[in-house]
Design a protein that fits this description.
By secondary structure, this protein is mainly alpha-helical. It has a two-stranded antiparallel ribbon. A hairpin with a 5-residue loop joins strand 1 and strand 2. Helix 3 packs parallel to helix 8. It is globular, with a radius of gyration of 17 Å.
Length: about 220
């Protein structure tokens, strides 16, 4: 039986929820979302004239990108928004790619991980996590069955979008720490405003994919 695009997306959403609650198995997916969050900070710094000092990834799924210069507002805002947009971009592109171009896309993701490892990894946990992700991301490149590669890319993208919906909510812990607190200090708008905005952006990304799937 062939699934429709919307049924397939629904399957990915359910599978991503299940994976999120599976110890050990969920770690590479959590690390992936954290990587795209932190690399979004880094790219924002580079694009606004700053530099990236280091990117740290922790085994528990947390991370940190240390930048210098650039536009502070753009850098602070880009983490949660960027990870949601990465998920949207990856899913939408993967859905229309030929096998050769899907392989190229995975190759680009592998290159991003490799560059981060070479340029900005400074601690053992980050090095280990990036090596694990490199191995996982590179594995589909050696598979000859196209749907397996496409399945991997789209499942990863859905997980990233779902985690981007949930992750900003953890900032509402009363500790006044993180990107939301930084933006609050820069703009005088409350942290809740930025958390809500990131939540809406991530939800809109998933809704966009759902709406596009309905048309196929």
């Amino acid at each position: 039986m062939t699934l429709t695009s919307r049924q397939q997306l629904g399957f990915f959403i359910v599978l991503a929820f299940i994976i999120d609650y599976l110890p050990i198995i969920n770690l590479p997916f959590l690390w992936s979302e954290t990587f795209f969050h932190e690399i979004s900070h880094g790219l924002a710094a580079l694009l606004t004239g700053g530099t990236v000092h280091k990117i740290s990834l922790n085994f528990n799924g947390s991370g940190l990108c240390v930048t210098r210069g650039g536009t502070r507002f753009v850098v602070a805002f880009s983490g949660y928004a960027g990870s949601a947009l990465w998920g949207l971009l990856i899913y939408r592109i993967a859905g229309s790619l030929s096998p050769a171009r899907a392989t190229l896309m995975v190759g680009i993701m592998v290159s991003m991980l490799a560059l981060t490892l070479l340029l900005w990894a400074r601690d053992l946990s980050t090095i280990i996590i990036l090596l694990v992700l490199l191995l996982i991301y590179a594995t589909p490149l050696y598979k000859t069955v196209w749907f397996k590669l496409k399945f991997f890319i789209q499942l990863l993208a859905v997980f990233i979008m779902l985690d981007a919906i949930r992750s900003p909510l953890y900032l509402l812990d009363g500790r006044d720490l993180g990107d939301g607190a930084n933006l609050s200090q820069l703009t005088w708008l409350p942290e809740f405003f930025w958390v809500a905005l990131w939540f809406v952006i991530a939800l809109a990304c998933l809704y966009s994919v759902w709406g596009a799937a309905h048309k196929r």
